[in-house]
Amino acid sequence: MMNPNRHLMTLDEFTVYQTRQFSHATGEMSTLLRDIGLACKFINKQVNKAGLVDILGAHGAVNVQGEEQMKLDVFANDVLINVLQHSSECAGIASEENDDFLAFDDDHSVNSKYVVMFDPLDGSSNIDVNASIGTIFCIYKRVSPLGKPCTQEDFLQKGRNIMAAGYVIYGSSTMLVYASRLGVNGFTLEPSIGEFCLSHRDMKCPEKGKIYSINQGNTAKYDDNLKRFLDYCMSEDKANSLPWSHRYIGSMVADLHRTLIKGGLFMYPADCKNANGKLRLLYECNPMSYIIEMAGGIGSTGQEAILDVQPTELHQRVPIFIGSKNQVEKAIEIIRG
Ligand code: AHG
Ligand code: MN
Ligand code: MN
What we know:
Layout (H helix, E strand, L loop, with lengths): L10 H11 L6 H21 L4 H4 L15 H14 L4 E6 L6 E2 L10 E9 L10 E9 L10 H4 L8 E7 L3 E7 L2 E8 L4 E6 L10 E3 L10 H11 L10 E2 L5 H11 L2 E4 L12 H14 L3 E3 L19 E4 L1 H11 L2
Parallel strand pairs: 1-3, 9-10, 9-11
Antiparallel strand pairs: 1-2, 3-4, 4-5, 5-6, 6-7, 7-8, 11-13, 12-13
Helix pairs in contact: 1-2, 2-4
One manganese (II) ion binds next to strand 3.
């Protein structure tokens, strides 16, 4: 049936519309995105009642004594795996929550062309305080031959090979931001019809930002160049809009969502205890760098573009400096000494 309210465009309608613009494109990406969107609607429902979980129990039933509560990140992981296993386009997944990748070996999946990587629940320490959390994902075309289960090399591809990436933020409203080489678009969940509807068309990360975002409590562990850069962020220089404001939520999705909309610089650098920082290349840094680059910003390790890092293991970590072009460039200039 035709949508009577034509100014509402759903995520599914939008990706089908985008596909039609390109004669060589197929609908596979739309299908995958619809499946990921469906999983995130399940997760959203569970996130919304997170505060009630002790009363209702993990499955919505009245809590029986001794019943073990399912943790939200385990729930989110299970839902994504379940939905993608039944998707017609997904050959396998790798998740922050699983030690190894999963190759789906049924007759249909071995012929599927895509693999998906995700951080099912990002910012989990914020659940208890009702602050925004999210799901991060990216999609690659597999490089192993069709007809057999996918292999590790499908997952250890550079971020440059990403076909599409996105995140869902479970915030004051729930939103899905989706990036492909055609641009970045945001869809807000309209609860009355249960659909993600286009609300932020062609998103661009402002070239100049005035916000820096870092866990500044770690300063004692940072090297001298990074400390110099933090001094720069706090210095008085009106001509360069300094000092910049400091904002740090502690959920990468929430901090990056603000950075995408308002501009700014988000950092999770290396320190003397963690040579590669904290954040994961495959599930956090690559998808976010792809989204920010497609929106005109930069994602860097400080030495090279995140998307150019050759992954060597699934759970590899990398330092990250990401956001508005001017601010990331300034950070790189100072931290290189
Ligand atoms: P996750 O919840 O998936 O483990 O990710 C947590 C991450 C990320 O969301 C955030 O940017 C970072 O941890 C915050 O770390 P600190 O508490 O060390 O600042
Ligand atoms: Mn995370
Ligand atoms: Mn996580």
